[in-house]
Amino acid sequence: MTQSETDTLPSQMEQQLSKGVMYIVATPIGNLQDMTLRAKDTLSNVHTIIAENPQVTRKLLTHFGISTPIIPYREDNHDRVIGNIITTLKDGHSIALVSDAGTPVISDPGIKLLRECYAQNIPVIPIPGASAVTSAVSVFPVPSPKFVFLGFFPRQFSEFKKWFEQSQDFILKEKVSYVAFESPHRIRKTLEGFVEFAKDLSEKYTLRIGLASEISKLHETFLWSAPDALLSYRENGFSLEKGEYTIVVSFVKNGKQQDDNSETEYDEDSRD
Q1: What is the CATH number of the domain that holds 220?
Q2: By CB neighbour count within 10 A (0-12 exposed, 13-18 middle, 19+ buried), where does 119 fall?
Q3: In terms of DSSP H, where are the helices of 174-205?
Q4: What is the three-class DSSP state of 48?
Q5: Per-residue pLDDT tens digits for 32-50
Q6: What is the per-residue pLDDT across 124-183, written as a single tens digit (0 to 9) for each?
Q7: How many other C-beta atoms lie within 10 A of the C-beta of residue 228?
Q8: 263-264 and 257-258 as β-strands: parallel, antiparallel, unpaired?
Q9: Does residue 272 lie in a domain region?
Q10: Same structural domain, 80 and 19
Q11: Domain boundary at 94, 127, 160, which?
Q12: More confident call, 33 vs 241
């Protein structure tokens, strides 16, 4: 198989499935320049867009000159709209699912829709793009590439501790980090919980937390430090009460930590 033949395979596959496809389309999480050409093309050509918040999505579509009809889709209206969605797909029309920002289904409505599509043998194709999860993990010096995504951080810190206690042998041995979303209204309480949690591990491990806020926006901020240092960070007008957060929680063995490629020392420096 030649290089040119390999390069044409994805588009040929999409052409074969171009009717009656459920597209999962990632949209920008802040900077509109992160909108991909495939996302624009897909949203322009599908029969219907189903959106978590049509008003938010309409602003995005207007910016790119896209006039595709939008219908609301949330977990609470799933039963009312799923019949029409499946009928449209079975009639040979493609539909795109979008969230307010980022990659749909990742802590956003959509999983029940996907289950129904699979049950009805309707093809589902992702249109990749921006993701707060992978963006955050990519910029912090975590002990290994392994991580567990929790969705939104539990409202009760005791629930997180319960998860950790059930899997701590695996988490610590395999150097797994936790990744979660957190709101500006709850981030301080969550960090306070980690301050106390860190004391229980301090004999062998040092807790390090990455805070990523307003990713790809004008005031995006990335901080990597101990939870108590993050609570007191005030440089460059930073305030914990502003912006949505993706948090990365890592457990660094005291001293030097051997990762897959080299021996790395972790320091206290924050990145902003």
Answers
A1: 3.30.950.10
A2: exposed
A3: 187-201
A4: strand
A5: 999 999 999 999 999 999 9
A6: 999 999 999 999 999 999 999 999 999 999 999 999 999 999 999 999 999 999 999 999
A7: 14
A8: antiparallel
A9: no
A10: yes
A11: 127
A12: 33
